[in-house]
Amino acid sequence: IIVENDSCADVLKQLKDQQIQQAKEHFHSLELQGVVSKIITENISDANIILWNKITVSLSQSLFLFCRKALLQVLPTESNLHRWKKSENPYCRLCNKIQSNLHVLSNCSSIPSLERYKTRHDNILKLLSDWIYSSKPSASSLFGDLHDASLDPIERVFLPSVRPDLILLDDSKIAVLELTICHEKNILKSRSFKMNKYKDINLHLQPKYKKHSLQVFTIEILVLGFISNLNDFCTFFKTLNMPISIKTEIIETIREILIFNKAMMYV
Predict the structure, then answer these.
(1) Residue 105, CA atoms < 13 Å, CB-side half-sphere
(2) In angstroms, rounded to a whole number, what is the distance separating the alpha carbons of residues 85 and 235?
(3) 8-state DSSP, 239
(4) CA 40 to chain centre
(5) Mean pLDDT for each 10-residue chunk of the chain (267 residues)?
(6) How large is the C-alpha radius of gyration of the chain?
(7) Are 164 and 144 in contact (CB under 8 A)?
(8) What is the pTM of this model?
(9) Is residue 63 within 8 Å of residue 253, measured between CB atoms?
């Protein structure tokens, strides 16, 4: 390396880059601890990861450690405790299903958990709708599947057979935006599911909008607070990119249910 470079600084930089790359490859190859991190780095922008990290390190130590263990999939879930031979069974005490990392964060079927998941979804959808409403072109209209005076009802654009989360419409085009809150391991699966679900959504348009061009977009908010890219949607409708203030509010909304999940693990 010294022979191939002109300065000591170049040599040191190259060595450092090699060390970082080797460490990443080793960490991402770990069967349990590296899976979620690998998925995040492959599907979430560097800017959104840096913002998430900035907010997370400011949390209380207890919640920060919860996030860190969740990221590494080493939370003391019943399935992990059972695998570590510290618990007699791997089942959730609330719903009696295997209590994995994914289960704790997004898949528990108990009534308190389901209510929290719905509240989380609706709160984040409201943040998204408020931002889009404030930044959309003046000649466009916003429709949403929320009880909100600023949103027109979905039924004005689509037949009752479909209910997408948000619709942005002008005199020639329609953008459908679907919000999914999912576990990090399910980001690609969730995106594929939504795109497949609405692949023929144009067949359900109200007659007056049949000639509009239509495109479906998705945004995935991961259960730990990571936010997927929404630039294509913003480009399609010439809206402003999502500001850091909205991203911060979304991450902080996720934090509320993390506190709930942490408490539910020790019921």
Answers:
(1) 25
(2) 52
(3) P
(4) 10
(5) 84 92 88 88 94 92 90 92 93 92 90 90 94 91 88 94 95 96 94 95 95 96 94 86 92 83 69
(6) 22
(7) no
(8) 0.86
(9) no
CA 229, CA 219: separation in Å to the nearest integer?
7
Local structure of 80: helix, strand or coil: helix
Q: Is residue 200 classed as helix, strand or coil in its secondary structure? A: coil
User: What are the φ/ψ torsions at residue 168 (nearest 5 degrees)?
Assistant: -110, 130
How far is the CA of 109 from the CAs of 94, 95, 263, in angstroms? Answer: 8, 6, 16
- Of the candidates 40, 65, 4, the residue with the CA atom closest to the CA atom of residue 220: 40
User: Are residues 264 and 112 in contact, defined by beta-carbon separation less than 8 angstroms?
Assistant: yes
Other C-beta atoms within 10 Å of 150: how many?
Answer: 12
* Beta carbons of 218 and 191 less than 8 angstroms apart: yes
State the angle between helix axes of 35-43 and 8-28 in degrees (0 to 180), rounded to the nearest 10: 120
